[in-house]
């Protein structure tokens, strides 16, 4: 098995939203960068297809918005839910102070392919697919590169900075020995697709019934459905059989009775084990983690991709110059954590509150719920819908691109 050795100023482990956006921004700023992605392509199971208004704003700042919006997508301008029998619209994105008052839904692989195409315009950008990072290179206590498994050998990348953007099961953060704080989650989520039929409407909706929480995301010709279950409850559900599960879905939404048969077996249902965690320190000499590798997000609010992109924009703003002019000190890496820690903490605190106050309660309910007073205010005073829209659509401290284009 051959060993190939290359050098780069920055080596990024993971070609997800965080890694691809950072790779593109650094290459655009004239930094030699290589992104290593373990899969052969970006085509993978559903991992969230939401591009938020703040990310769309970043695309505008990069001059890419028009080209990006030519990709087939759906625009979601409001999000609602049915609690018991009452419909409540609780987020309205149309008033946001951004160019795009909507969430764009498009397959994540289209988004990543788009970023890869943009990044490849720069000769100092390299994307290595089927390169699975499995070790770090050290010089005493400093990380000086990484090693990856290739289909036919090994790749060694010597780099001034290694970035762990390899998601919530990050190998980089484990190899670097960074300490994780785990905040726990009361639920897991099952994901499945059901076809969309004429007359279905097109609104992204959550449904809350006794003991059940179900979300349907409009994906054009199909519904991406999320069924929330108590943590670790998948095996018990499987034991009841697929027919019981189909009946449960119909009980949540009668209109699904003509298509639940599309869930032929448990193979059509994917389990997302929900984690909420955060690194105490996101960096050490020669290395930093961003995106889910630094902070795994709960699916509440569907904000994980947006946070990953915001981390990448902030990291590029802070790192491009030190990377071009010399070594990146720990102080500089600390600035990246400092910039992104507060928005991450605030978002996770909100997610944990929703998990504890709403999701845990719903999952243990035995009677049809009535909307709590606070939720009913969203229908009485539509202006209130702007608050969740801002938190979901823009998040805390939205980032702007300050790294240059060379
Ligand atoms: C089922 C599901 C549904 C979700 N729904 C939403 C949603 O609707 N909206 C939303 O905003 N967020 C959603 N999320 C969360 C969202 O996917 C993440 O928060 C976001 O993708 C984080 O981006 P990232 O780049 O940090 O990590 P990831 O997207 O996880 O990307 C990490 C990349 O690193 C690669 N990788 C991993 N290990 C290695 C290695 N050792 N070497 C090389 N490459 C490696 C992976 O293949 C992957 O491409 C969902 C997640 C899941 C699992």
Give a concise summary.
The chain has helices at 17-28, 53-61, 65-69, 108-119, 171-175, 234-240, 242-252, 304-325, 330-364, 373-380, 386-393, and strands spanning 2-13, 33-36, 50-51, 74-76, 78-83, 86-92, 103-105, 125-128, 132-139, 142-150, 153-164, 180-182, 187-195, 204-209, 212-218, 222-230, 270-272, 277-279, 283-284, 287-289. The protein is of the alpha+beta class and 406 residues long. The strands form four sheets. Strands 1, 2, 8, 9, 10, 11, 19 and 20 form an eight-stranded mixed beta sheet that branches. It has a seven-stranded mixed beta sheet with strand order 6-5-14-15-16-13-17.
Q: Can you tell me about this structure?
A:
The chain has 406 residues and is of the alpha+beta class. Helices cover 33% and strands 28% of the residues. It contains eleven helices and 20 strands. The protein has helices spanning 17-28, 53-61, 65-69, 108-119, 171-175, 234-240, 242-252, 304-325, 330-364, 373-380, 386-393; strands spanning 2-13, 33-36, 50-51, 74-76, 78-83, 86-92, 103-105, 125-128, 132-139, 142-150, 153-164, 180-182, 187-195, 204-209, 212-218, 222-230, 270-272, 277-279, 283-284, 287-289. The strands form four sheets. Strands 1, 2, 8, 9, 10, 11, 19 and 20 form an eight-stranded mixed beta sheet that branches. β5 (78-83) and β6 (86-92) form a beta hairpin. α1 runs parallel beside α4 (108-119), α1 (17-28) packs parallel to α8 and α8 runs antiparallel to α9. It is globular. The structure holds flavin-adenine dinucleotide. Flavin-adenine dinucleotide (FAD) is lined by residues 13-19, 36-39, 46-48, 50, 132-133, 165-167, 171, 191, 272, 291-293, 297, 299, 302-306, 308.
